[in-house]
Amino acid sequence: QLQLVESGGGLVQPGGSLRLSCAASGFSLGYYTIGWFRQAPGKEREGVVCINSGDDTTYYVDSVKGRVTISRDNAKNTVYQEMNSLKPSDTAVYYCAASLAVRSTLVLEQYDNWGQGTQDTVSS
Fold first, then answer.
1. Which regions of the chain does DSSP assign to beta strands (E)?
2. Distance linking the first and last C-alpha atoms of the chain
3. Cα dist. 53→72, 75, 76, 98, 100 in Å?
4. What pLDDT is stored for residue 70 in this prediction?
5. What's the confidence (pLDDT) of residue 2?
6. Which of 9, 15, 18, 87 would staple 118 via disulfide (CB 3.0–4.6 Å)?
7. Can you give the pLDDT at residue 56?
C-alpha cells in the first residue's frame, strides 16, 4: 500500500524556519514527482514546490521563491522541504503528494497519492 507521511510541523516565530519531511512506504519516491502543497484556514489548497523524478529539478511558485528548498534522499525514501523567513501567512497544513505523470506542475488533480498533512503555525 502506497503511503506518505509528513512530519516536522510546529509553531515557529516569524522569521524562523521549518524543515518538513515526507516519508514514503510501499513505493520508491525516486520514481515520482513529489509536490508540497498547503492549505491555510478558509482557503483552497495550493501548490508550493515540487521536485521532479529522475533529474530532481525543481519548480517553485512565485510566492515562496528564495525562501523554500526541496530535496530528496532516496536512501531514506524521503523528500524534505525547508522554508525560511517564515511569515504568518505561511501558516497552513502542509501536504506532500506523489505523481508518476507530471513534471514541474503543482496542479492538485494531477497528483494521485497524498499524505495526511502536518500543521505549521507562524506566530509570535
1. 3-7, 11-12, 18-25, 33-39, 46-51, 58-60, 68-73, 78-83, 92-99, 113-114, 118-122
2. 40
3. 10, 15, 16, 10, 8
4. 97
5. 87
6. 9
7. 92
